[in-house]
User: Fold these one by one.
Assistant:
Number 1:
Amino acid sequence: MVFVRSLVLLLKFLFLYSLFTFTFTTCFPQIQPKCHQYESHALLQFKEGFVINNLASDNLLGYPKTASWNSSTDCCSWDGIKCHEHTNQVIHIDLSSSQLYGKMDANSSLFRLVHLRVLDLSDNDFNYSPIPSKIGQLSQLKHLNLSLSLFSGEIPPHVSQLSKLLSLDLGYRAIVHPKGSTSNLLQLKLSSLRSIIQNSTKIEILFLSFVTISSTLPETLTNLTSLKALSLYNSELYGAFPVGVFHLPNLELLDLRYNPNLNGSLPEFQSSSLTRLGLDQTGFYGTLPVSIGKLSSLILLSISDCHFFGYIPSSLGNLTQLMDIDLSKNKFRGNPSASLANLTQLRLLDISHNEFTIETFSWVGKLSSLISLEISSVNIGSEIPLSFANLTQLVLLSAENSNIKGEIPSWIMNLTNLVVLDLPFNSLHGKLELDTFLKLKKLAVLNLSFNKLSLYSGKRSSHMTDSRIQSLELDSCNLVEIPTFIRDLGELEYLALALNNITSLPNWLWEKESLQGLVVNQNSLTGEITPLICNLKSLTYLDLAFNNLSGNVPSCLGNFSQSLQTLALKGNKLSGPIPQTYMIGNSLQRIDFSNNILQGQLPRALVNSRSLEFFDVSYNNINDSFPLWMKDLPELKVLSLSNNEFHGDIRCSDNMTCTFPKLHIIDLSHNEFSGSFPSEMIQGWKTMKTTNTSQLQYESYSTSNSAGQIRTTQSTFYTFTLSNKGFSRVYENLQNFYSLIAIDISSNKISGEIPQVIGELKGLVLLNLSNNMLIGSIPSSLGKLSKLEALDLSLNSLSGKIPKQLAEITFLEYLNVSFNNLTGPIPQNNQFSTFKDDSFEGNQGLCGDQLVKKCIDHAGPSTFDDDDDDDSESFFELYWTVVLIGYGGGLVAGVALGNTYFPQLKRVM
Ligand SMILES: *[C@@H]1O[C@H](CO)[C@@H](O)[C@H](O)[C@H]1NC(C)=O
Ligand SMILES: *[C@@H]1O[C@H](CO)[C@@H](O)[C@H](O)[C@H]1NC(C)=O
Ligand SMILES: *[C@@H]1O[C@H](CO)[C@@H](O)[C@H](O)[C@H]1NC(C)=O
Ligand SMILES: *[C@@H]1O[C@H](CO)[C@@H](O)[C@H](O)[C@H]1NC(C)=O
Ligand SMILES: *[C@@H]1O[C@H](CO)[C@@H](O)[C@H](O)[C@H]1NC(C)=O
Ligand SMILES: *[C@@H]1O[C@H](CO)[C@@H](O)[C@H](O)[C@H]1NC(C)=O
Ligand SMILES: *[C@@H]1O[C@H](CO)[C@@H](O)[C@H](O)[C@H]1NC(C)=O
Ligand SMILES: *[C@@H]1O[C@H](CO)[C@@H](O)[C@H](O)[C@H]1NC(C)=O
């Protein structure tokens, strides 16, 4: 679940954020001179250009500074304004977090204040205005801060005229965008960056986080010898990082996080003033140099999700000032305890997902300042180490899949600051009274899924409502009913109870209006789904898949919640019609009704679901024609109608284009579709023509910055089966699933020929046309589908030869052309030599090494006839002929014979 994990991330982010902030203080004399009237006018005019809106600033301490400005007072005394002590000119404007909302005028009166040295407009909402190029006129500027203020577009090159700049902050630090997306608002051309570097040579602070630069970094960056802080977080940088930057004498902060294509390794460090180093999710690689021990000012080292490996040098243990270390998701080995045990200032330690071998954890108890400890996938092999009882400051403890054994110790309740306790996928056992956790008054996230615990509700009768638990994950915890203490969790947002043996859901559950996610899949729920479920108006995620639910689907289920994104009811015994109403502007992204006994037609009101990405009604009794009306759903990516009673043509009606703009998986198999091959429609499937699957981004994953860290509680497994004979794939990771491009039209009554245009769907990975009434030849254009992994054309009436181009498809793992009317030789080169006879059987006219019937007519100077080469003796004769020709004729003969007999020749030699 995205929001659960993001809570953990947010907590972590807040710690990191506080450490990555870098404040630059300037001193100004507190004299109040008399302001120039033209400057006073300019300021008031600027003020008039905006309205005050308290949503425009994130900082809760912000207030509208301009509110008190008025023409009857000295502008030098206004809130946020400072003037020069001698000239009385306005030299300083600080309107940070002032709740300003509105567009910034390109000719704003602000740019008349040419004596400005400080301009801070951060944390306001300029409503996506471009940064005015007139900013270049403020040539005296030393400090310019436009961060967090919703400017957009290209940063004007004129910024490089500000040659006196000491600090430039155009960054956008927020990670939580309303829809979770992180598309950058601002872009900076490399040429502009070069000019800034060339001209603003005294610059000390350069913050361009979330500014798309999308290039390599210029080597001249190392000329900025005054640089103290550089942040290029998420700037789409690539190429080699100029290593000289590490040696800049004044550098204190270097933040290159989230530039996955930026490469580099750590240099031999000299003693330096570096205090914070962030390289997470970059292409940095190599080992940590021993010389890292010289970074005696380092307080933050965050290098998760890079390509580092090797041992942690013990010299790190000398850096006792370190407060935050994140080494997670690398390939570090050995035992880091010697390096870490003496770092008693540590507040945040993440060593998860490496290859560490740690024998004892007693040293962790010495790190009594820890507020966050993450040791997922670190083999503990024992109970939760007693030394952790010392970590009374701990806010977050995450140890997923860490081979923790034994019972949950009672002293865990001594860690009263815990907000997140995350212990899934371990071997914890014992009977545990859930109410115990109510003692942890700050606990918001509890995850005990996939252990061997037997959880039960206590006998607590009071209705204490002071628990802060928002997310409770108890998947696979031997529950036979929903623990009653859940009733009292007034802030519960997410409840996951998958893989238990719960038979019914209590009515009080439908009163929990705070609930956003409810997952009770793979339990033993029976009976009907009560319409009361539609009281949960905040639900975004509802998953009751794989139970024994029966009866009708409540008709309110399509439109009870404007926020519902996922509706998964697959694998039950639900009957009757699919809910027919879906309100305009709904948020539905995934609907899975598959494997039930639903009837009737598809609800046409689904056209209101403009966010719909995944729609699966396979294995039901739906009786309808092809839903051409879905062609305009802008996000639809996956459409599965298989195993129903769909019928009629799969065709665009005349004068219509069959857009399906994002569709890339379509499964129409096992229906009654008829008519000719849907060629016009195929031509409209643009997404299937892409070979770059990274373009198939899936909305919920567009938070790709942290996609690696977001563990979705995978409720439903995504399967795609091609052919009855064994090529099936299970996708546990939605993103992998979503990068698949596949068409399955098998087991229908499609007639006619397969058109050559099929070769335009360059991204196709799976293509199944089996068991139809297709005639004509196999189009040679199939050979252009270079990503194809599985191709099934079996059980049709295809004739002619197998195009030799098919043998060019490098990744083809599965091929089936059996039971057609194909003739001629089977190509023998490349992948084709790995396919067995069952790929080809049932074609009278085919010959080749896979079949009893060998080919002879194309094999060179042989007198054997196509029809009587079935005995193996003749084969051997032929075989030797070829070898001899290869020997005598040398290379030319070998080439003339094609690759067909190459394998045999090689074996002989
Ligand atoms: C560099 O700064 C000077 C002085 O401010 C300015 O005239 C010039 O245009 C700037 N150069 C660039 C490339 O911006
Ligand atoms: C900046 O660096 C380049 C090489 O990286 C060098 O050629 C140039 O002279 C430097 N400029 C200054 C002003 O130091
Ligand atoms: C730690 O620092 C001390 C004193 O500065 C030095 O002698 C020692 O070699 C350092 N240890 C490591 C492992 O670098
Ligand atoms: C930790 O510090 C103690 C005392 O200062 C010292 O004796 C020990 O060697 C240090 N351990 C490591 C691994 O540096
Ligand atoms: C617990 O922390 C204290 C410092 O707060 C430390 O002196 C003590 O050694 C720690 N105990 C263990 C078992 O690590
Ligand atoms: C937990 O707290 C109780 C009461 O404060 C205390 O007696 C006990 O020793 C603590 N347990 C551990 C393991 O620290
Ligand atoms: C679930 O509970 C029922 C009785 O309520 C029992 O018959 C069944 O075996 C249980 N299933 C599992 C997987 O424990
Ligand atoms: C197979 O193809 C031959 C011609 O190549 C044709 O005569 C025959 O009727 C076809 N058989 C079937 C079953 O389509």
Note: The radius of gyration is 33 Å.
Number 2:
Amino acid sequence: SSSSHTHPNHTVTSCIASERSALLGFKAGLSDPAYLLSSWKGDECCKWKGVHCSTRNSHVVKLDLQGHGCDLNSDAWTQVLGGNISSSLLGLRHLQYLDLSCNGFYGVQVPEFLGSLHKLRYIDLSSLSFIGRIPPQLGNLSNLQYLNLNSEYFNTTYSMDITWLSQLTSLVHLDLSGTNLTTIVHWLPVVNMLPSLKVLHLINCNLRTSSASLQLSNLTFLETLDLSANGFHTHIARNWFWDLTSLKYLYISSNGFYGQLPDEIGNMTSIVKLDLSSNNLFGMIPSNLKNICSLEEFFVHETNINGSITKFFQRLPSCSWNKLTYLSLASSNLTGRLPTKLEPLNNLIYLDISRNKLIGPMPLWIGELTKLTYLDLGYNSLDGFIHEGHLSGLESLEWLWLSDNSLTLTVNSTWVPPSSLTNIELRSCLLGPKFPPWLRWLTSLDNLDISNTSISDKLVFLDLAHNHFVGTLPTWIREKLPQLAFLRLRSNMFCGHIPEELTKLVRLQYLDLAYNNITGSIPKSIVNCKGMIATRDNYDDGGDASHRAFGFNDEWEHGPNELVTYTENFTVVTKGQERLYTGEVIYMVNLDLSCNNIIGDIPKDISALVKLKSLNLSWNIFSGKIPENIGALAQVESLDLSHNRLSGEIPASLSALTSLSRLNLSYNNLTGEVPSGDQLRTLEDPEYIYVGNPGLCGPPLSHKCPQPEPIPSTPKHHGDLNDVASFFIAMGSGYVMGIWVVFCTFLFKRKWTVYWYSVCDSLYDRVYVQVVLTWASWTREKD
Ligand SMILES: *[C@@H]1O[C@H](CO)[C@@H](O)[C@H](O)[C@H]1NC(C)=O
Ligand SMILES: *[C@@H]1O[C@H](CO)[C@@H](O)[C@H](O)[C@H]1NC(C)=O
Ligand SMILES: *[C@@H]1O[C@H](CO)[C@@H](O)[C@H](O)[C@H]1NC(C)=O
Ligand SMILES: *[C@@H]1O[C@H](CO)[C@@H](O)[C@H](O)[C@H]1NC(C)=O
Ligand SMILES: *[C@@H]1O[C@H](CO)[C@@H](O)[C@H](O)[C@H]1NC(C)=O
Ligand SMILES: *[C@@H]1O[C@H](CO)[C@@H](O)[C@H](O)[C@H]1NC(C)=O
Ligand SMILES: *[C@@H]1O[C@H](CO)[C@@H](O)[C@H](O)[C@H]1NC(C)=O
Ligand SMILES: *[C@@H]1O[C@H](CO)[C@@H](O)[C@H](O)[C@H]1NC(C)=O
Ligand SMILES: *[C@@H]1O[C@H](CO)[C@@H](O)[C@H](O)[C@H]1NC(C)=O
Ligand SMILES: *[C@@H]1O[C@H](CO)[C@@H](O)[C@H](O)[C@H]1NC(C)=O
Ligand SMILES: *[C@@H]1O[C@H](CO)[C@@H](O)[C@H](O)[C@H]1NC(C)=O
Ligand SMILES: *[C@@H]1O[C@H](CO)[C@@H](O)[C@H](O)[C@H]1NC(C)=O
């Protein structure tokens, strides 16, 4: 064809026109919201995504359109094809390989016509939520070597007659997981007709019959047998699969098998992965298990082993200890103490001995498992101390679950935990009385449960920024952490509204919720909160005009003053820049809600938060006007309202902000004249401050105002303190104003944070507050 001549490589195959039409017909039946098939245009169908042609005769031989629906990544499942599987595929008569797995063909049946594509060797239609009957026509595909119709998570397909399978004598890999085969009694003789079979997955197929033995077995090549989650309810010892002593992978969990763990296991001398869990089995593992030197993964959880853990480890084949990666012994009635010495389990990745009856201390060898990512010893009766030596070698640890033991964590204050940790549950262990400083070092926590750990410190400070927390903002904080002054949840994936409970925290001084997915509007109660802080000037100079205007109550006057002497250098994020501040933390006051999806007006009383030094509401969806009395925020140094939908004029009171050094109102819909004022004139980058508001005019902008109109009600050129005070008085004094003093982003270089904790520890020993921080249970409530 002419198109191939234009191409430098003359061996490039060109597309056969009828097959191109077949592909386009197939595409026409699909829905493709993510444009995965955008390359499917033009003549050269052999170059289309997922299409492979024979270099010999140009026929389409392979169609590989696996979707992303099986990825755990949350957006990935939208990267899928759906719709119908058109019979125009029949035009691809030379097709050998078809992979449509992990797409979204909801409610579609496995197409019967596939049985006519006689050259097919490979079919992967797994994870597709197909429904209905598996077509017996597939039995005509005598070349088929690989058939994967796994729908184990959907369980919406069925077959009432599988004799067609016995014709597929070339089959090497068969996966019918999730297919309802409940009516089929004699499934095993059918499978036994497949002498090439290496892999057989029949997970969750509603199979109920098994067979005691398999005489003259054809299944001599079988390596993988997965019969998990059926319902055999037979005695474990008399089962056909024990004859397949060359099996490498045997999974028979959740089948209602009963009886003692059989000696037959010991004859499976090639076994690599063995899952016997969640049946009704009992007894110690058999002594002939020592013959199994290839064992890598061993799952016997929910087995009533009812013996000592020491004996269990003795019977674990020592010749395979350096191969073991997974060991799952949860809920197995194991008793006694963990052995104090053990051959090294150098490659162990996963160790779960939770929910047994173990007593005594956690042995030091656990701390030497450098590859361990998952450790669960929860729900035992372990006691004693855990110190650095138990944990420091766990370089790869992601999950540490020790809940509901009587363990005492005595790591010293300088200890740094493995940075890989993402899940920690230490419920009811002894951690206190001080809040464990090492938690500061963890930056990717998904789950943290340190409830009932006898912490009687005051967290005052909670910094969980830059983690992966999801769900709505915690409402329990007020109840559980009533003394919280600093709350930093920046850069997580929180969604939903800002709960009113947060605004009721009596000491909240610092709130940073930036870079989440928070929606709704700012609760009005934000200005009623009693979040006041005794900054030095409250006491020393008798309060400024705004304090007097509202009159602090007694509670306030007798409020805590522990912070007053604290002085430290710290870095602050303002306008995206990290700045080092030298001075007292208590003067830093900040509210940062930037980069969320918050809607509605900026509450007009936000100006009550007179201690704010930095207010960042940028990159939200705020609309309406900038509150007239914004100028009452007399201490604001940085004000960022950019990238919202604010409209109307810039309030003249803005020029009263004498402390202002950074202002950003860009990318809104503000109109009218830019207020003049001494302070505003001193600001740098005047163009940048107002850019993206085409309706603004007047200096410093080059755009002249058409008709400067005087605004009688709000005279310009405010600037002195009396005017500021008048704003407050105008707001009335009917309620006790809570200055919501929010400490500025003294942001937390890790080094500094740790220092901060130790300072808190020494300062706050008068009042004790129970600390219960149960992120796990909170997220579960959400579900
Ligand atoms: C042409 O393509 C074939 C197959 O992709 C490749 O092996 C060969 O090196 C290419 N020849 C040239 C000249 O690029
Ligand atoms: C396939 O096999 C069935 C019987 O299993 C038969 O009825 C049918 O005609 C065969 N051919 C095709 C193209 O389906
Ligand atoms: C399996 O099929 C049987 C009858 O064919 C039906 O009674 C049963 O509910 C099905 N099971 C599932 C899990 O769909
Ligand atoms: C073994 O497989 C062959 C080919 O499918 C079949 O003819 C034979 O009956 C099978 N043997 C048994 C014991 O099932
Ligand atoms: C284990 O295999 C040997 C030899 O094949 C056999 O004699 C013995 O009966 C088998 N034991 C069990 C428990 O199946
Ligand atoms: C543990 O063993 C005891 C007998 O010692 C038995 O009563 C109990 O049911 C067993 N628990 C489990 C979970 O198997
Ligand atoms: C569990 O072990 C105890 C003591 O060894 C024994 O008395 C009891 O019968 C065992 N229970 C089972 C279910 O094996
Ligand atoms: C804390 O533990 C480390 C080892 O992790 C040790 O080097 C240091 O001396 C300990 N400090 C104190 C005060 O015990
Ligand atoms: C709290 O932990 C103690 C042991 O430290 C335990 O006895 C108690 O039952 C636990 N309380 C709760 C509610 O879990
Ligand atoms: C943000 O929240 C909205 C509504 O709750 C949701 O539809 C959206 O997917 C979320 N976005 C992200 C990135 O999580
Ligand atoms: C704080 O910064 C100043 C100026 O950089 C420096 O002189 C002082 O030593 C610092 N104080 C502390 C405690 O680091
Ligand atoms: C800007 O505000 C004016 C009213 O002041 C309104 O008519 C217009 O729709 C707004 N534009 C946008 C993009 O919101």
Note: The two ends are 59 Å apart (CA to CA).
